[in-house]
């Protein structure tokens, strides 16, 4: 923890090795966050790569008021939303990727947990991202609003409706 | 009430995603990859900033040249540009001030 704080201070002062070390430490965390958010391995790699590049560009803007991982999640969420907007990725490809992941993980995961993941990925993106940020990463509505560039009230209602949709889906398949 | 209703679903969601976190196999590149990324991205970022600065200076230089030329050859145009620029600036300052007052109220 102290070592990370030291590395962060050095990184903000321009030390490239310290910054590289911190980014390495957080790589899997960011990658898994984006992967969970989109369910597409390749897209997760691309967004993670872009997130790291932005972190390098903006490290001097990191003030240390939040955890470094929170700062990275904020960048990753913005990057993911922008990427989706720009690319308008083919939904069919994404579906294929999820099917592949489904086959890969079905026999590794207890069915109950797999249903939860499947239900989450079936949610529309506007619900999925706030639900994930609120109920898995434990962010405040205000923070999620900042990350997703929307209003706090909108985030609250999206989390609520997202959870309702999840409940329905799980009840139907449960 | 709503929180109570969601409790078990929240737990399910959390545990499902925890399981998924353990299952997702992300290959973490070696430190050298990150060192190269930081070095190259820093270099590219500085180059980009210089490029933008150069563009800004070029645009400023062109505008000043244009204004100087208009001052000597078409004074009327020079006056129109100056008056328009002053009006736009005043309008902007007034708008900003008004918004600030509204926020502070």
UniProtKB/TrEMBL annotation, chain B:
This is YxlC family protein. The keyword Transmembrane helix applies. It comes from the Bacteria. Keywords: Membrane, Transmembrane, Transmembrane helix. It holds the Pfam family DUF5345. The chain crosses the membrane at residues 53-71, 77-94.
